[in-house]
Amino acid sequence: MKVTLLGTGTSGGVPLIGCSCPVCRSTDPRDQRLRSSALLTAEDGKHVAIDCGPDFRQQMLRAGVGDLEAIVFTHEHKDHTAGLDDVRAINFVQKKPVALYATASVFKAIKSQYEYIFTENTYPGLPQVTLQEIDGEQPFEVAGMTFLPIPVMHYRLPVLGFRIKDFAYVTDANEILPLGMERLQGLKVLVLNALRRETHISHFTLNEALEMAAALQPEQTWLTHISHQMGLHHLVDPELPRGVSLGFDGVDCYI
After folding, report:
1. Model pLDDT for residues 131-161, shown as the tens digit of each residue
2. What is the dihedral of CA 255, 78, 151, 5, to 10 degrees?
3. How far apart are CA 172 and CA 151, in angstroms?
4. What is the C-alpha separation between 73 and 70, in angstroms, rounded?
5. By the 8 A CB rule, do 249 and 6 touch?
6. 160 pairs with which residues across the strands?
7. Percent of the chain whose predicted confidence (pLDDT) is above 70
8. What's residue 65's pLDDT?
């Protein structure tokens, strides 16, 4: 299995519209962050995405991927779901629906956001999807890979991270619940959100993410869901402890 970080930015992306800070003006591609998403490539070549935000089309084009078995959703916020309409192009290429995996509450939100996809009065050209409900605690299979849910909290909103083999992906969290902590033991690679240095109501700060990485002790931690407020990649990354790196768009963080 290979994991590629399609996007490592926060909800507004980096650069942020209207901002002229050094990060948003940087020409370093590592400072140019699309909204957070990941692409898993199974050993047989099948692709599964974790989330599909508003940059999904651009991310898939940049990755050179035109097929997709499934999208697994962490939660319902639009920076993680707003690219669902672009599944239409994938349907056209692979001549079959894309499976969506999410909890009942996330599917309720998606059906509201994309009512036209799920209406009885369908018409040609709509995204073709199938819904596979997960309960948030039990493991499930996608494209031959076993996903183990990691329950976390995004302030008051329940969010899921996922563990596949000895890799785990946790985004949009400021608390990992006890079951999640138990399931994150013994990792080789952890992808973990770290928004900025300053305190935030619903995301781990840089220091909080570093404390979590030290507690879990994966072999390698990649930070994601990064704001322009974090600072320039080439200055921040060397400050990080051994085994922790700032993620950046397009990096293969697990092979």
Report:
1. 999 999 999 999 999 999 999 999 999 999 9
2. 10
3. 11
4. 10
5. yes
6. 151
7. 100
8. 96
pLDDT mean values, one per 10 residues, the chain (255 residues): 98 98 98 98 97 98 97 98 97 96 98 93 89 97 98 98 98 98 98 98 98 98 98 98 98 97
Q: Which two tokens stand for residue 121?
A: 């009065």
Alpha-carbon separation of residue 181 from 192, 199, 215, 244 (angstroms) = 13, 22, 9, 18
Class of CATH domain 2-254: alpha beta
Give the separation between CA 124 and CA 213, rounded to whole angstroms.
47
CB atoms within 10 A of CB 4: 22
Side-chain half-sphere of 24: how many Cα atoms within 13 Å? 14
Contact 121, 131 (CB under 8 A): no
- How many C-beta neighbours within 10 Å does residue 231 have? 20
Identify residue 42 by its one-letter amino acid code: A
* Structural contact between residues 43 and 58, judged by C-beta atoms closer than 8 angstroms: no
**Greatest C-alpha distance within the chain:** 55
What are the tokens at 251? 């990096």
Helix (H, G, I), strand (E, B) or coil at 215: helix
Collapse the DSSP code of 179 into the 3-class scheme (helix H, G, I; strand E, B; otherwise coil) and give the result: helix
Determine the residue type at 189.
Answer: V
Predicted TM-score (pTM) of the model is 0.97
- Whether the upstream peptide bond of residue 15 has omega within 30° of 0, thus cis, is yes
For the chain, the structural domain boundaries read: 2-254
